[in-house]
Amino acid sequence: MTGENEEHSKRGEYLMEIDAADASNGCVSQIKENGLLLWPVLPQTVGKGLPYAPVDWPSPGDIWGWRVGKRLASSGYYLDRYLYLPIRLQRSRRKRDGFASKLSVGSYLRSKFPDSDVNAFFSSFSWKIPSKQAYLLKDELGSFGILSEEMLEQSPSDPVCGEPVCKAGNKYCSSVVKEEQSPLSVTQSCDVCCSEPGFCRDCCCILCCNTIDLAFGGYSFIRCGATSVGDGSICGHAAHVNCALRSYMAGIVGGSVGLDTEYYCRRCDSRMDLTEHVKALLKTCESIGSRDDIEKILNVGSCILRGSQKIGSQKLLQHIQLVLHKLLNTESELKDVWKAEVDVEDVPVITGDLDLKPTLFSFVCRL
């Protein structure tokens, strides 16, 4: 082991000793996973090695990295955690290669190291990372108090026996609203987000955990329809378009992700073409009587398409820009807005790569 690795190992042991001491004093409850003593961390903490990432795998001296986000499960663990390759295995020193789910890690291991024991790999560290804030609150109050006010407001009332109930308490959830529509196909089993008390696969965003809006044909969210080869079940998880754009999981994303008018599902690691979603969005707009609503919906379509290298997506974006031009700069009746009477040359078409920054999307999408 190199000097740097030894120093890191000592640092990890030191931190574990501190937390163990705190636990013995009653400050933080002891947390163990896979035989490892876990120390709770703050949001967006970055680290290397045990207990939250492997060491000496696949070769001695290889230390994996880890990072957590902000969202918490009701159990006190982070919903968003990332695993990063050791420096030796990274394709670029400028951009770290990381994984956002155990499924993606497992796929990588089976692809690059087909003879490796994936179960033994995950047993060597803890995938779960506890929140320091949640556990301090637990020690003070005796229970986790991390449910948001919005979740509390949506808590379902006592259901009538036999009636379906939405886990998120959403009275407009498709699972409880009786409408004449074809039900969702059988969905794949999920023991990650769907095991959380306040998360409903039918109506909650997998990225922010808030409920989706079915208004105007559900233009503001994407539902993954990836099908399992074995039993034909579908993923069925949904995500707000804006959340997916901000998380670099939809629209045009360069680098190792490589999305072009596509959506990447964080739960099942599948990709979904969004062209049909944008076309459906346009069709919905033709039946809406509000200019403001039409503009808002078309801006969502623009965010998905802008920067695409696909000819079809570029033409679709051009059509949206024509409609927006007429909508905002003419006094035409809404029924005339959809007629292609404006010269394409009169409307600026934005091309090239899109700089995917959260501030840009918050400005452009205006959701």
Describe this structure in words.
Among the domains are: 3-139, no CATH class; 275-364, no CATH class. It has 12 helices and 11 strands. It has helices at residues 3-24, 102-112, 118-123, 132-141, 149-153, 215-218, 241-246, 275-285, 291-305, 311-329, 334-337, 358-364; strands at residues 31-33, 36-38, 46-48, 65-68, 81-84, 98-99, 221-223, 238-240, 250-253, 259-264, 271-273. It has a 4-stranded antiparallel beta sheet. A hairpin with a 5-residue loop joins β9 and β10 (259-264). α8 (275-285) packs antiparallel against α9. It is elongated and about 70 Å long. The model is unreliable at 1-28, 139-162, 178-184 and 341-367 (pLDDT under 50). Keywords: Metal-binding, Nucleus, Zinc, Zinc-finger. This is Oberon PHD finger domain-containing protein.
What strand order characterises the main sheet?
3-4-5-6
Order of helices and strands: HEEEEEEHHHHHEEHEEEHHHHH
Question: Which term fits the overall shape?
Answer: elongated
Overall average pLDDT: 74
The count of DSSP E runs of length 2 or more, i.e. the number of strands, is 11
The description of the largest β-sheet is: 4 strands, antiparallel
* Rg over alpha carbons: 24 Å
Structural class per helix/strand content? alpha+beta
Alpha carbon gap, first and last residue: 51 Å
Helix content: 25-40%
Task: State the helix count.
Answer: 12
* Low-pLDDT segments: 1-28, 139-162, 178-184, 341-367
| Strand composition percent | 5-15%
